[in-house]
Each structure stands twice: as structure tokens, then as C-alpha cells.
Design brief:
By secondary structure, this protein is of the alpha+beta class. It has a domain at about 105-330: paralog of FGE (formylglycine-generating enzyme). Helices cover about 15% and strands about 15% of the residues. The strands form four sheets. Strands 1-3-2-11 form a four-stranded mixed sheet, with no helix packed on it. A four-stranded mixed sheet has the order 10-9-8-12. Strand 2 (about 15) and strand 3 (about 20-25) form a beta hairpin.
């Protein structure tokens, strides 16, 4: 396995294709410092807590925050304080109510994209779209759901059975309700068909994340900046440094009640990518371009900063891309 560090245009995308896995870090300066420290054998301890690269106490899962290290005590704060890869595993922390019922989305109009003074060029112009009724998974597809498809000899196993920080992830009951990762677009689409649905269009996904008109909210929960109470995110606020239990962050629910529409993992959609598609997008149930080279992901991931968490953010990737920060959810007709 080859690992490459590079800059991420959307604030920390971690992407892999075939046997080549790209780690895209949100800070090139930090990455360069880390490389120099590693080559020199010096201890790099950015937050001065005694943990870091080549440090005597050992590595640090978040070297930007002295409150996070293997020496810390886990508290109920929706973060991995002690670097064990599990969030809020201390006595007294609230459990997570797991509701397997999909979310019903009624037909209607919403504002898609970003105003001209916000967002990236491929999010313009903001336009009104009418979408027919559908149902969408409340959560990102989990390891246990995907494993059922593998056991039915329909789905192929994820490209790797680990996650970013866990060597034993897919098939491990501890992480049964964590999002499946290391699946490409074809694998995601195959699962959704087996499960009686399909991947969502970009329009369907954004309607669920933003809510119906007149909502123009920036994030699924509103306009407040994201943090670990609302999304499993990265950057300086790094919450876990890996995937997390789906549905844990109830304050980050979308207007329809869908969970983790921002953060945790990037989510595949059905659409081919075209940077100028919004300039000619149909008003009713847009399906995206009829062909292309790249597919669209939505929602940001556990490595992403706030910009990628926006409901209008679009990320284009090759369909054969797989990585520890990429997953998906499915949609189906109402009544199924």
C-alpha cells in the first residue's frame, strides 16, 4: 500500500483508487513539518502535551489540541479524548437511539446551490428545483447492512476491511453500526439495488440536507458553524480522526430527520459531475448529466473542515475511488 500526502481543495478529502491510496491533509504546512520531523527523528509535539511524531510518550491522534491524547480521560463530549478510536465510551454517557426506519420526504421545491457571493463556482447559480416524493436512509449505510449483502453473495467486500485507525473494522461487531467505507461507486450502487433502492440524485440529497423552500440554510442544522456536537469533522476540531457511530450527533440532524448529512463520510450520489450543470439544470427532478468521467460526492467527512460540511458543497471523484472516508446512503420510492 502506498500513501501520499497532498493538499485537499475541499478541506481534507481522503481518497483512494485501486491499490493507490491518497491521504489528503487539510494543512500542507503541518504535513511538511511532520515529514521533516520524521526524517530528522525529532519529536514533533505541536500542542505540547508530550505526544506526537517521534515523541517518547508515543503518537497523538490530535496534535492540535492538548485536551486530546492517550493520557486523557474520556468524557461525554462527542469527541475521542483518549485516542482509543471510540467516542463517549465513559460511564454515564448517553446511548444512541437507533431508528432503522427511513425518512419520508414529501414532494416539493427547494433552493439548490449557493448564492453568487457564497460557495464554489460549480454551486452557481442557486436555483429552485421541484423534487418528487421519496424515502431516504436515516443513516449512512452501516457495516452490518453491507455485510448482509456480502453474505447474500450480491455485494463484493470493501476494498479493505480496516478503517483509518482501526485494523479490524468491517465485520467487527463493535463497529457494526458505523458507516461502511472503502467502497466505490459501483459497490454502493449494487448495494442500493439489492436493498430495493438506488443512490440519491444530487437534488434529492441536497433537499434532504437543506430542507424545503424557503430554507436557505448553510448546514443541515442551520447556519451555526459546525463542531463535534453536530458533525464528526476534522480540521482543528478533529472529533475522532475516523468514522463514528451513525446517528450519534442528534443536534446535527437535517430538517427531515436524516443524520450525519454533514461529516462522518463523504456520500456517493447517482449523478455524473459537470461543473456547469446548474446553468442548464431542469427545474423538475434533475438527474444530472447523461454521461461523464466523475461522480459526485456530498456531505464532507471526518477529515473535513466547515467548508465541505455545507449542504451545497459538491465533490467530484472517479467512480472507482475508494477510501476510509467515503460511504453512501440509499433512496427508494415511498411505500418501499
Amino acid at each position: 500500500m502506498k500513501w501520499v500526502i497532498a493538499m485537499g481543495a475541499l478541506g481534507g478529502a481522503l481518497i483512494g483508487t485501486s491499490a493507490l491510496l491518497f491521504v489528503v491533509h487539510p494543512g500542507a504546512a503541518l504535513a511538511n513539518d511532520a515529514n521533516r520531523a520524521a526524517m530528522a527523528g525529532a519529536c514533533q509535539d505541536l500542542d505540547r502535551d508530550g505526544y506526537g511524531i517521534n515523541c517518547p510518550k508515543g503518537p497523538d491522534c490530535n496534535d492540535r489540541d492538548p485536551r486530546v491524547s492517550p493520557a486523557q480521560t474520556e468524557t461525554c463530549n462527542l469527541r475521542d479524548d483518549n485516542c482509543n478510536g471510540v467516542v463517549d465510551d465513559a460511564a454515564g454517557c448517553n446511548g444512541v437511539a437507533y431508528d432503522t426506519a427511513p425518512v419520508d420526504v414529501t414532494a416539493g421545491a427547494f433552493f439548490m446551490g449557493s448564492p453568487m457571493n457564497q460557495g464554489a463556482d460549480d454551486e452557481h447559480p442557486q436555483h429552485v428545483v421541484q423534487v418528487a416524493a421519496f424515502r431516504i436512509d436515516r443513516y449512512e449505510v452501516t457495516n452490518e447492512r453491507y455485510l448482509a449483502c456480502v453474505n447474500a453473495n450480491v455485494c463484493s467486500s470493501p476494498q479493505l476491511k480496516s478503517s483509518a485507525r482501526r485494523t479490524d473494522y468491517f465485520g467487527n461487531s463493535t463497529f457494526a453500526r458505523y458507516p461502511v467505507v472503502f467502497v466505490n461507486w459501483d459497490q454502493a450502487s449494487t448495494f442500493c439495488r439489492w436493498d430495493g433502492g438506488r443512490l440519491p440524485t444530487e437534488a434529492e440529497w441536497e433537499l434532504v440536507a437543506r430542507g424545503p423552500a424557503p430554507s436557505k440554510r448553510i448546514f443541515p442544522w442551520g447556519d451555526e458553524a459546525p463542531d463535534c456536537t453536530k458533525a464528526n469533522m476534522g480540521g482543528d476540531a478533529s472529533c475522532v480522526g475516523d468514522t463514528d457511530l451513525v446517528g450519534r450527533r442528534t443536534w446535527g440532524a437535517s430538517p427531515w430527520g436524516a443524520m450525519d448529512m454533514a461529516g462522518n463520510v463523504w456520500e456517493w450520489t447517482a449523478d455524473w459531475y459537470d461543473a456547469r450543470y446548474y446553468q442548464r439544470s431542469p427545474q423538475h427532478d434533475p438527474q444530472g448529466p447523461t454521461e461523464g468521467a466523475l461522480k459526485v460526492m456530498r456531505g464532507g467527512c471526518w477529515m473535513s473542515g466547515a467548508d465541505s460540511m455545507r449542504v451545497s458543497c459538491r465533490k467530484a471523484e472517479l467512480p472507482n475511488t475508494w477510501a476510509p472516508n467515503v460511504g453512501f446512503r440509499c433512496v427508494r420510492s415511498q411505500g418501499r
